[in-house]
Specification:
This protein is α/β, with parallel strands linked by helices and about 230 residues long. The chain is built from 7 helices and 9 strands. It is about 30% helix and about 25% strand.
C-alpha cells in the first residue's frame, strides 16, 4: 500500500525533529481519523482485492499465498479489519472463519451488517487479549503500520500470542525503521515501521520464521511479510 502523499525514505525519519514536516501527533489521531471518516474509507477501499500490479505481486496474489497456507475452514484473526471489505470478505467467501478486531465503531457496524457470518469485535491491537483463543492465520494487513514503532513493539507480540501451533501471519511495513506522514481526505495519515531485522526477531521469539524477501514481489513503498510457525 502506498502511504498517501508520501513514502518511507531509505533512512529512519525522526518526525519529532524541528523542521520536519511530519509530527508524532498524527499517530495518536489514527483511531479517531478512521472513526470520523468511516464512510469515506468504505468508499475509498472498495470491495475487491487489488489485482493490477505489473511490477510486483498484487494484493490478491499475496492473499492467495496466505490462504494457501491455511487449513480448509481454518480460523483467521484479522486485526485492524476495518469494514471487512475486501480482505475479510475474500476469506469468508473461501470458507474461512474470520474474527475481525477494529477500534472504529462505524467500520465494525458496516462489517457486521454486510458480512454477518464473521465475528466482529471492538478493540485496539495494543491491548489485544482474546484469552486462550488461538487462530490458524493472523493478519495485520495495512494496519500495524499505522502505529508508531514504540506501539508496534507492544502490539506485535500481542497479535502473535494468538497463534495456533501451526500458523501463518501476514502484515505490511516500511522498508526500514522510521515514520512518514502522508495525507488522506485532507488530514495527516501516519505510518510507522520497525527495521526488518527487528520484525524478524519478534517473529522468531514467537516461533515464526519469515519467508525470504524477494525484491521482485515487493513494491517501492514497503515490505509485505509472510511468517510461518509449525
Amino acid at each position: 500500500m502506498t502511504p498517501p502523499g508520501g513514502c518511507f525514505s531509505n533512512s529512519s525519519t525522526n518526525c519529532s525533529e524541528p523542521g520536519n514536516l511530519c509530527m508524532t501527533s498524527p499517530a495518536d489521531r489514527i483511531i479517531g481519523l478512521y472513526s470520523d471518516k468511516a464512510d469515506g474509507w468504505i468508499a475509498d477501499r472498495g470491495r475487491t482485492l487489488g489485482r493490477h500490479a505489473p511490477d510486483h505481486l498484487s494484493e490478491a496474489g499475496w492473499f492467495e499465498r496466505f490462504m494457501a497456507a491455511l487449513p480448509p475452514g481454518g480460523t483467521v484473526l484479522d486485526v485492524g479489519c476495518g469494514a471487512g471489505w475486501p480482505v475479510a470478505a475474500a476469506l469468508i467467501e473461501r470458507g474461512f472463519r474470520v474474527t475481525g478486531v477494529d477500534p472504529s465503531p462505524g467500520l465494525l457496524a458496516h462489517a457486521a451488517e454486510t458480512l454477518p457470518t464473521g465475528e466482529w469485535l471492538a478493540g485496539d491491537m495494543r491491548t489485544l487479549d482474546l484469552g486462550m483463543r488461538r487462530f490458524d492465520g493472523l493478519l495485520a494487513w495495512h494496519s500495524l503500520f499505522h502505529l508508531s514503532p514504540a506501539d508496534q513493539r507492544i502490539a506485535l507480540p500481542r497479535i502473535l500470542s494468538h497463534a495456533a501451533q501451526t500458523c501463518v501471519f501476514m502484515t505490511s511495513s516500511g522498508p526500514n525503521e522510521g515514520e512518514i506522514v502522508g495525507e488522506w481526505r485532507g488530514e495527516p495519515l501516519y505510518h510507522g515501521s520497525l527495521a526488518p531485522g527487528e520484525y524478524r526477531a519478534v517473529f522468531a521469539a514467537h516461533g515464526f520464521a519469515a519467508d525470504p524477501i524477494d525484491p521482485a514481489e515487493q513494491d517501492q513503498y514497503g515490505l509485505i511479510w509472510v511468517a510461518r510457525r509449525g
